[in-house]
Amino acid sequence: MYNSKIIGLGKYLPDNVVTNDDLSNMMDTNDEWIQERTGIQERRWIEEGSEDTSAVMGAKAAKIAIERAGLTKDDIDFIVFATLSPDYYFPGCGVQIQDLLDMPTVGALDVRNQCSGFVYAISVADQFIKTGMYKNVLVIGAEYHSNGLDKTTRGRGVTVIFGDGAGACVLSREEDTTKGILSTHLHSEGKYADKLIVASPSIAHWVPEIIEAGEEDISYFPYMDGTFVFKHAVVRFSEVIMEGLIKNNLKKEDIDMLIPHQANLRIAQFIQKKFGLSDEQVFNNIMKYGNTTAASVVIALTEAWEQGKIKEGNHVVLAAFGSGFTWGSVIIKW
């Protein structure tokens, strides 16, 4: 048996910064309203005419991660790509990465677990490495939200939250099983699927029906019962973090760095207070980027590492909760 270890991290954000004041020119909202509810000050949205897509951004982040890992594209044995906003209905973005990076014909897997996507993806990659099947696995989280949001007052409760971006990491075989990813913990509760959903297009409600319905049908825009999601998120975040700590005989005090999914700054602050963690023990960047869903954890992890906030020997905890409902945690000995 082996452990897997993160040996390279990378991120990519579009250049275009959209502030809360910019959004107030599109819809009935304002900076104070957005910051009070979410903590977000600005986000990145892909500009019209840009080459960027979920796959393209993912490839840009992946190149950085592979280079920092001291590897080449030919050293990668497998690709796991997490997103809720793929370039196509099918095929998924994983195969596009294989093409964009001109890789050998390695396998590529897509994970569709939305806000929990990166946590699920890293768990899958971890198992491939632990069983000895692969040595180096590229894991990517990327989202292109901005082209699918309702940018009117009707959609402001959701639209102000989301941003575009991508992050990537390379997991590699680690023979010392006291290091690297110690455990992952995954859960779901599908009875609440309709609380955070994009219902269409689907095979049951395909594009011609949406067009025929006209403006009355807005099922292709994201819907979120924000209060309901918030109440469940704070409970599940706490549970799954504790599950990981208990599994590894760790206490709250052993957490050196908690990186929560960047869904809402208020959720992160609630968890921080509940676990008695200092500002230096929790990393948030939702203020700058908004919620980048499957990309948020890996973008934040990359930034925390770049800023020297994660050091060898640290206990790092990743946690996420989102649509599905799905949630999970990852316990790492850096």
Could you describe the 3D structure shown?
This protein is α/β, with parallel strands linked by helices. It folds into two domains: 3-177, Thiolase/Chalcone synthase (Peroxisomal Thiolase, Chain A, domain 1), CATH 3.40.47; 181-333, Thiolase/Chalcone synthase (Peroxisomal Thiolase, Chain A, domain 1). Helices cover 33% and strands 23% of the residues. The chain is built from eleven helices and 13 strands. The chain has helices at residues 20-24, 31-38, 54-68, 93-100, 117-130, 156-159, 207-213, 226-247, 265-275, 286-289, 296-306; strands at residues 3-12, 17-19, 42-44, 78-82, 107-111, 136-143, 165-174, 180-188, 196-197, 223-224, 257-260, 315-322, 326-333. The strands form four sheets. Strands 1-7-6-4-5 form a five-stranded mixed beta sheet, with helices on both faces. The chain has a four-stranded mixed beta sheet with strand order 8-13-12-11, sandwiched between helices. Helix 4 (93-100) links the parallel strand 4 and strand 5 (107-111). Helix 3 (54-68) crosses helix 4 (93-100) and helix 8 packs parallel to helix 9. The radius of gyration is 19 Å and the shape is globular. The mean pLDDT is 97.
Q: What would a concise description of this structure say?
A:
By secondary structure, the protein is α/β, with parallel strands linked by helices. The chain has helices at residues 20-24, 31-38, 54-68, 93-100, 117-130, 156-159, 207-213, 226-247, 265-275, 286-289, 296-306; strands spanning 3-12, 17-19, 42-44, 78-82, 107-111, 136-143, 165-174, 180-188, 196-197, 223-224, 257-260, 315-322, 326-333.
